[in-house]
Design brief:
Number of helices: 5
Largest sheet: 8 strands, mixed
Number of strands: 10
Strand order of the largest sheet: 5-4-3-6-1-7-10-9
Length: 192
């Protein structure tokens, strides 16, 4: 069965964006791009909220076409074009979208159906609103966090409105030269 892995950049104090959605504090470089590229190249399904999907759709389909495209732009653009995209939205319409599945309601049943399909894990990119919804529905199986060496003090938290404790098991860590630390967790079901 496929797992949903939430992929997020996060501040040291637990925010995924500033109060107005700012992400200018996120540190990325070629070392991180190469590391992430290896992991996501194995994925066949990407999950987004509407806002993140629209940001991705406005950039990645043509990112490789630029004469100044980086290695990361070329590789990620190629992956983005082929990956199956699932979008959580109550307002988007799915007509004419290639390789895009829109979930407008009955999220739990539809996500569980997608998890039963053949293939690799489902990568949930950014999308704090969608992430909060999926956490409340107990649908996220792991967290792939990139902790940035910054304290924001306020913003959009990764973990909001959590009612029950969520136990995690640390799989791997990686320290990048730029100061970002990767933490890779899965749910710890051993205590259930």
């Amino acid at each position: 069965m496929k797992k949903i892995i939430s992929f997020m950049h996060i501040s040291l104090d637990g925010f995924v964006a500033g109060p107005n959605g700012e992400m200018d504090w996120i540190t990325v470089d070629e070392e991180i791009f190469d590391h992430v590229g290896k992991r996501i190249s194995e994925g066949d399904t990407a999950l987004y909220g509407k806002v993140t999907y629209q940001m991705m759709e406005n950039y990645w389909p043509t990112a490789a076409d630029s004469p100044t495209a980086s290695k990361h732009d070329i590789e990620h653009s190629k992956w983005y074009k082929k990956v199956h995209k699932v979008v959580l939205s109550t307002t988007m319409k799915g007509t004419g979208l290639k390789n895009v599945e829109i979930i407008t309601g009955n999220i739990s049943d539809k996500i569980n159906e997608i998890k039963q399909r053949e293939g690799e894990d489902i990568l949930l990119f950014g999308s704090p609103g969608a992430t909060h919804s999926l956490i409340r529905l107990n649908l996220i199986d792991g967290y792939w966090l990139f902790v940035n060496p910054v304290i924001l003090g306020q913003g959009i938290p990764l973990f909001a409105e959590i009612k029950d404790k969520i136990k995690l098991k640390l799989l791997t860590t990686k320290q990048f030269t730029c100061g970002v630390t990767e933490l890779n967790y899965i749910l710890d079901n051993s205590s259930k």
